[in-house]
Amino acid sequence: MFNIQEHVAFNRNRAQCPNCLADGKHDFNLVLLKSGAYKCHRGCTTDQIREALGHPKEQTSDRIIPTALAKQPKTVTHTQEQIDQYRHDLINRSKHAINYLKERGFTADMANRYQLGVAERRVRNGKTYEKHWCIAIPYQISEGVYMCKYRVAPWLADRPEKLQKWSQDTNLQSRFHFTKQDGNEKLFIVAGDWDAMTLAEIAITENQPFDICTNTTGEGNIPDDLSPLERYKEIYIFYDLDKAGDEGSQKIAQTIGDRTKICTVPHPQQPKEGYDSSDAIASGYKFEDFIEATKTAIAPNKPKNDVRDRLITTQELLDRAPDFVEFLVHDLITSNELQIIAAPPRAGKSLLSLGLVESVASGKEFLGRPTQQGDVIYVNCEDGDSKLKERVLAQGWDPNIPVHWLTEFNLSEWDKLLEVCEDIKPKLLVIDTLTSVRSDDTDENSSKVANLLKPLKQAAKRLNMAVILVHHTKKLNVQSLSEVDVFDTMRGSGVIRSESRGAIVLAEVANTETRRNEWRLIAENGSYGKQDLLVVLDANTLSWKCLSNWTPNCSESQEAQALAFFDKVGSASIQQVSENTSIPAKSAYTVVTRLVQRGMLTKQGTRQNAVYIRAIQHIQQFNSLLNSPNPNSASDAAPNSTKDKNIFSTDTQVLKTVDVTAENMPMPQSVELEAQTLTQQPIPNSTSNSTQFNKPRSVKSKQLKVGDRVRIKAGGLSGKIGTVDKVTEVGKGKAKIVNAVVSSDQFGMPQTIPVNHLEFF
User: Whose CB among 93, 436, 470, 680 lies 3.0–4.6 Å from 432's, allowing a Cys bridge?
Assistant: First the structure.
C-alpha cells in the first residue's frame, strides 16, 4: 500500500509537492490529512504526485514517466567548513542575530557548543520569495555532513504576517537531535530546538544525569530510526501544553514503548496555549522542577488526568489566595462573582440595575455604599430605546460615562460576548433579564439551568468582573418578612440561588404601624451577612434611595487604630495595615474603604496592590512646598497684567514638584517607630498654614451631608463621635432648626442632634 510519508517529509502536516517542484514551484502546497490521505492545494492530482515520486498508480507499456517528473527534489547539505563559517559570521558580524540570542540567554559559548550560525536564505513571503538572514541550527547527518533548520530574521520588528518563521533544508528527515549526550541512562525529549538547547545548558551547568534531545521535524512526526534511543532505560517526554503536544507525546510514547512516560511541563496557574520548556525556564522553573514532574508522569495509552494537575498544596492555596474579598459595591456586591437582582414584575428592578450601572461607571455611591469605578456592559433586552432614554435622563446620567449597551442578545452568543468582555475589561456586566436572553425551553427549576450559569461564573472569576443577572420573583405582599424567605420567591430559586454568590431582592412589605406598604431591599452575599434595608423609589429621578442604616461590619475602635497608623506612616497597603495593627485583613479592607468614602484617605492603584494615603499628608506636603524657596526665581516677579492669575494652573512650577506616590512615601515596618508630630484634625477648607489648621471646624447646615463624621460638642453625649445618616429641618424662617440623625456604636440607637451642637471630626 502506498504511504506518502515514506517518500515525503512533512513538517506539521505540510510539505513541498513533488509535482509542483518539477514545475519550479517551491510553495508548501502538499497537505497531509488526518485520514492519511494527501492533497495539493495547487491542484496536482494524486496520480501526478505519485508519478513525480517514481511510484505511479498503475504501469502500462504505453505509459512513459517523464524523467523530470521522476526526479526527487535535490537534497541540500552543508560541510563542516560551511557550518564553521556560519558560526563565525554570527559571533563576529551579525549584531541583530547575536543580540536576539543574548536577549534569550544565549551566550557566545552556547553558540559555539550548539554550532549556531547565520546564513542568507531564500524564504517564502506569501506567494513570493525573498532573501533574508536567518539563524541556522545545524543537525549532523553523518561525519562532516550537516542539514539545517532556519529561524527566519526573528529580530524584524515589522515582520510581514505571511513571512515564514521557520525554514529548513530540502529533504530534512525526521530524526533525533541531541543537545546533551553524556552516556546517561535517562533521557528528556522536548519539543523544539530552543527548548532542547536551554534545558541542556542547565543540565550541563548542574551536571545533571540526563541526556536531552528533540525531534528535528516537530511533535507530530516519528523518526524512522529509533536506534539512538535503544540505550536509555527511562525516557520522559516534555511536549508543549496544547493539543498538538498532547497528541504528539502519546504518539511517540506509544512508538517507543514501556520505557517512556509523558510528563507535564512545569507551569503556573492558567498557562498560555502552547506553553513549553523554554517558557518554563524563562518563568523561573529549575531543572529540579522538571525532575519533580517525572514523579507524576503517566504511561502511554493512559489518558492525562487533568484533576491531578489541578491539585495544589495548602501552602500553594495560601500563597495564591488574596487576603480579603474585594467588593464592587461595598458590603453588597463582590467584584468577581455571579449575583442576582430579583423583584416582582414592574417593581423597579431595572431602575435599580440602571442606578447600579451609573454608580459604577461614574464611581459614585450606590445606596450609600462606595463603589469601584470602571467600564460597564449593560445587556438590556426588555426595554425599548425610548424608555431607556427616559430613565437615563431622569436619573441624570453623564452621557460620557463608560457604559456599553447591548439591546439584542441571546445566551447562545455567550462566547462572542465573552470576547468583547476580554477586550473592554469591564468591572460590571449586567444581563437584564435572564428570561429575555434565554432561547431554550428548559424549566427554571431544572438542573440544566445550572449549565447556563456556570460559564458566567467562570468568566466573572477569570476576568475579575461582577456579573449581575436581573431576574423575576413571584408577587410578594406580606405582613412580616418572618412569614417567608424572600430568596425562595425567585423563580427557579433552588438552582439559581445555589449557582450565584449572592442575591438582592426587592420586596413589598405591609407596615402595621403606618398601615402602608413599604419597599424593602434584602441582600445576601455568601458569608458576608445579610442586609435588610428600607428603600423608596423617587418618582422624579426614577432612582431607588436607601432610608435605613447599614449593618456595620467594623467598629469605631478599628477605624481609630487605622487612622493612628496612617498618621504615623502616611501611606500603606491593606496588608501593611493588617500586619501592623490588630485588625484582620478582611476587616482592614472594610475600615479603609469607609475612610476613603469619608475623604480621610485617598486611594492609589487598583485591586490587591492598591496603596492608601492619609489625606492630611497631601496638604502638609503642599504647604511645605509653598513655604520652600522657589527654584525658579524669575517666576517670583510680579506680572505686568493686573488680571488675577489661577495659582492652580497646570503650569505652576510649585505644583509640578508634588509627588505623593507610594514609592516616595517610605513604609515603616512597624508602628513602634517614633511618632510623627501630626494632628488628627480634619482638613480645613483654606490652604492657610496658620495655627487655626488644628482647630475643629464648626458645622454649618449648608455644609453637612450624609456620611460626614462628626463629634457632639454639647449635651449628654458630648465628646461622642458618629456618622450623619440623615439631615432634617423643623420649622420655617427664623424658627427653622436643622437637625442631624447621627449613628454610632458609642451610644447605641441613632440620635437626633441639632447641627449647632456638632463639629466635624
Answer: 470
- Give residues with Cβ within 8 angstroms of 356, minimum separation 6: 329, 333, 341, 366, 428, 430, 468
**Does the domain spanning 556-631+650-689 belong to CATH 3.60.20.10?**
no
What does the DSSP 8-state code read for residue 96? H
Residues 402 and 376: their CA atoms lie apart, in Å, by 6
**Percent of the residues in the chain that have a pLDDT greater than 70, as a whole number:** 78
pLDDT tens track for 620-634: 554 555 555 555 444
For 463-478, the pLDDT digits (tens) are 989 999 998 887 766 6
Distances (CA, A) of 695 to 682, 683, 740, 756: 8, 10, 22, 16
pLDDT digits (tens, 9 = 90+) for 283-295: 999 999 999 999 9
Outline which parts of the chain fall under CATH 3.40.1360.10.
176-315
SS3 392: helix
Whether the pLDDT of residue 647 is over 60: the answer is: no
Is 740 within 8 Å of 753 (Cβ atoms)? yes
Q: Read off the amino acid at residue 71.
A: K
Sheet holding 38-40, edge to edge: 14-15, 30-32, 38-40
pLDDT (mean) for 352-366: 92
> Would strands 186-190 and 234-238 be described as parallel, antiparallel, or unpaired?
parallel
Q: Quick check: 614 and 570 in contact, CB under 8 A?
A: yes
CA gap 372, 361 in Å, rounded? 9
- For residue 664, the 8-state DSSP code is G
Instruction: Kindly report the pTM of this predicted structure.
Output: 0.44
| C-alpha to C-alpha distance for 213 and 230, rounded to whole angstroms | 14
* Domain at 327-546: CATH architecture: 3-Layer(aba) Sandwich (3.40)
Q: Residue 651: its pLDDT value, please?
A: 36
Strands of the sheet with 571-572, listed across from one edge: 571-572, 611-614, 601-604
Q: Is 307 helix (H, G, I), strand (E, B) or coil?
A: helix
DSSP state of 473: B
Q: Are 358 and 339 in contact (CB under 8 A)?
A: no
In contact, 121 and 132? CB cutoff 8 Å: yes
For residue 152, report the phi and psi dihedrals to the nearest 5 degrees: -80, 110
- 295 CB neighbour count, 10 Å cutoff: 7
